[in-house]
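A reminder from the course coordinator: this example appears on the midterm review sheet, so study it carefully.

Given structure:
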């Protein structure tokens, strides 16, 4: 019998190749596995620098469980209503400088979200301070290519 895949370990292994990156988009068809890869990256990189994982999957359980409150403001609220990123970034206990930005209180409209010009500024801000922005996104989302290009 083949043991189940340890997606978080896969993210940890991948993390070693991302030291010079300041934004990365983790894409997958399984939201749990995708979130676990993002967490693996974040846990390793968070020991060395500030890391924020944005849940663009829509309340992915591995990320949502780290937020600690129900119905938190998140990335959609920041982009739609101007909620500060500092208010939506929830620190992950015992994980260094790792933060999770949950999906938010509104459903995703990938067209509006992924085409938003704010992504370029956000990615540039992470680059300026030497931090890492990890975006966990579904493979089926429209305009995924534009999101990748912007970040």
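Designed residues:
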């Amino acid at each position: 019998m083949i043991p189940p895949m340890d997606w978080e370990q896969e993210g940890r292994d991948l993390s070693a190749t991302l030291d010079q990156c300041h934004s990365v988009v983790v894409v997958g068809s399984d939201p749990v596995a995708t979130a676990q890869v993002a967490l693996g990256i974040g846990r390793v990189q968070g020991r060395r620098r500030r890391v924020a994982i944005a849940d663009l999957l829509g309340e992915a359980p591995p990320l949502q469980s780290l937020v600690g409150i129900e119905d938190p403001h998140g990335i959609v609220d920041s982009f739609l209503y101007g909620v500060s990123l500092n208010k939506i970034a929830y620190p992950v206990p015992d994980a260094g400088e790792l933060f999770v930005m949950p999906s938010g209180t509104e459903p995703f409209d990938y067209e509006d979200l992924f085409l938003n010009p704010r992504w370029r500024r956000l990615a540039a801000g992470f680059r300026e301070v030497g931090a890492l922005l990890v975006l966990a996104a579904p493979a089926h989302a429209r305009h995924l290519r534009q999101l990748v290009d912007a970040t």
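The mean pLDDT is 92. The chain has eight helices and five strands.
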